[in-house]
């Protein structure tokens, strides 16, 4: 069926046009009012390529609303007060556990203590998940249930915690309607596709969701190392469809090499302030030893699976770049939050994509100033990556930041939020670069008809106008997944 978007304007100005869609692709573009057939009048609204979020944890995003909200807290006492109130008010339990999400302890005046949490709730399991998903504060009942050992802080970090989080998620039994609602909400912000990095059996779960009616988004479904051999045995290859509609394709092998900034586990060349430089984790955590990284990447390369490697600290980025170079392999480096000056050009030289999350720079600027003092000129350095020739992709890391590409674009181009001045404004991206890094197509004949229709020209908007961009419609393959015209 042929459909025309009549009287549409492309970003940046120019005369209105008719965009003729046929067979899920843009067939031709004509002067406004000259294309025949069925049409929807855009009334001068602006059209651009449909948007992608290049890094999400979709189940974490969906389940977030079922967890006690800790995002507004600034201390251990703040968190405990919310937990105390949630328990007193009978907050819903998830599989018998009280679960919270969103604390960030990087700047807390006093560290968390197990005894303090036990004093608030000790009769049921309590698991409080950090905003970056890399650690949790829990009581002894929760640790016993999850098979974890606690020290006096009650914090569990990195690999033991990430494994426990996967167990918690598997027991959540979220209804398919929750996924459908979240996908449709993403479409209302102009999103046509996501790169799914959930630690789950994505190659099986996403085709089942599409079959059950979760059809608003395209999905690239990543695999983690513990399911790598299963995916290889099933003959999966990156880019190949995983279900008949073609909405879900096989993504990349996801490997997490280090931790995070807020948890002070990102693997760096220099120690974190206040830590004994001779201690084992003074410079962060090497979550996957580099020889094991090399083995996993080589296995994926042999099986024609792409790779996406999480590297946040500058030591992690150096080691990951070295490993890709040794294997002569392309891929993406996820986050790339702190990079040595000499390593910026290597992304382009090695054909590697930097998959970054601009809103993290807004969330973490203060903790970066504290824990990466003297190094922040090369932290969240999107401008340096771009000027060095690296290909960029923008994402949210949802639920760590909102699943909203306009938020990411605004953060990338302004380096500011609210009433604060721009943080390292020299690292801002041009708007055109940020838009390109948030899409996979263009508005041109022959391209897939993945299109977002907005009320304002992004090039005529200020920072907050971009961040709150009103989206009038979204089309995925020529079909409306959101229509508010």
From TrEMBL:
<dbReference type="Pfam" id="PF07969">
    <property type="entry name" value="Amidohydro_3"/>
</dbReference>
<dbReference type="InterPro" id="IPR011059">
    <property type="entry name" value="Metal-dep_hydrolase_composite"/>
</dbReference>
<dbReference type="InterPro" id="IPR032466">
    <property type="entry name" value="Metal_Hydrolase"/>
</dbReference>
<dbReference type="InterPro" id="IPR013108">
    <property type="entry name" value="Amidohydro_3"/>
</dbReference>
<feature type="domain" description="Amidohydrolase 3">
    <location>
        <begin position="38"/>
        <end position="480"/>
    </location>
</feature>
<protein>
    <submittedName>
        <fullName>Amidohydrolase family protein</fullName>
    </submittedName>
</protein>
């Amino acid at each position: 069926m042929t459909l025309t978007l009549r009287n549409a304007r492309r970003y940046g100005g120019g005369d209105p046009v008719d965009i003729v869609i046929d067979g899920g692709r843009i067939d031709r573009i004509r002067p406004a009012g000259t294309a025949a057939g069925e049409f929807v009048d855009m009334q001068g609204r602006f059209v651009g390529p449909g948007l992608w979020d290049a890094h999400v944890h979709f189940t974490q995003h969906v389940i977030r609303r079922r967890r006690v909200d800790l995002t507004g807290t600034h201390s251990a006492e703040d968190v405990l007060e919310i937990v105390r109130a949630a328990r007193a008010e009978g907050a819903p339990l998830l599989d018998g556990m009280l679960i919270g999400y969103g604390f960030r302890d990087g700047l807390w005046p006093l560290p968390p203590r197990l005894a303090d949490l036990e004093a608030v709730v000790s009769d049921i399991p309590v698991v409080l998940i950090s905003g970056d998903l890399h650690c949790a504060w829990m009581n002894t009942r929760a640790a016993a249930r999850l098979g974890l050992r606690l020290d006096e802080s009650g914090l569990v970090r990195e690999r033991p915690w990430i494994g426990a989080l996967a167990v918690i998620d598997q027991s959540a039994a979220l209804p398919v309607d929750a996924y459908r609602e979240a996908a449709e909400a993403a479409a209302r912000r102009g999103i046509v596709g996501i790169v799914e990095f959930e630690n789950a059996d994505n190659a099986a779960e996403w085709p089942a969701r599409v079959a059950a009616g979760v059809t608003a988004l395209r999905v690239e479904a990543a695999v983690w190392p513990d399911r790598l051999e299963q995916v290889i045995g099933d003959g999966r290859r990156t880019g190949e469809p995983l279900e008949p509609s073609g909405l879900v394709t096989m993504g990349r092998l996801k490997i997490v090499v280090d931790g995070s900034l807020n948890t002070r586990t990102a693997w760096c060349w220099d120690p974190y302030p206040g830590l004994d430089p001779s201690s084992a984790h003074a410079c962060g955590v090497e979550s996957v030893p580099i020889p094991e990284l090399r083995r996993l990447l080589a296995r994926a390369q042999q099986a024609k699976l792409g790779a996406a490697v999480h590297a946040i600290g500058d030591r992690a980025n150096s080691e990951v770049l070295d490993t890709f170079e040794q294997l002569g392999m392309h891929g993406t480096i996820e986050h790339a939050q702190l990079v040595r000056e000499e390593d910026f050009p290597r992304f382009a030289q090695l054909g590697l994509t930097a998959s970054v999350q601009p809103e993290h720079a807004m969330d973490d600027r203060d903790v970066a100033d504290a824990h990466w003092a003297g190094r922040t000129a090369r932290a969240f350095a999107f401008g340096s990556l771009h000027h060095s020739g690296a290909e960029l992709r923008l994402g949210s890391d949802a639920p760590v930041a909102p699943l909203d590409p306009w938020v990411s674009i605004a953060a990338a181009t302004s380096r500011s939020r609210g009433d604060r001045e721009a943080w390292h404004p020299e690292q801002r991206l041009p708007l055109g670069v940020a838009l390109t890094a948030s899409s996979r197509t263009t508005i041109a004949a022959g391209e897939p008809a993945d299109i977002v229709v907005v009320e304002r020209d992004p090039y005529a908007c200020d920072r907050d106008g971009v961040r709150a961009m009103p989206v009038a419609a979204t089309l995925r393959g020529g079909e409306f997944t959101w229509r508010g015209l």
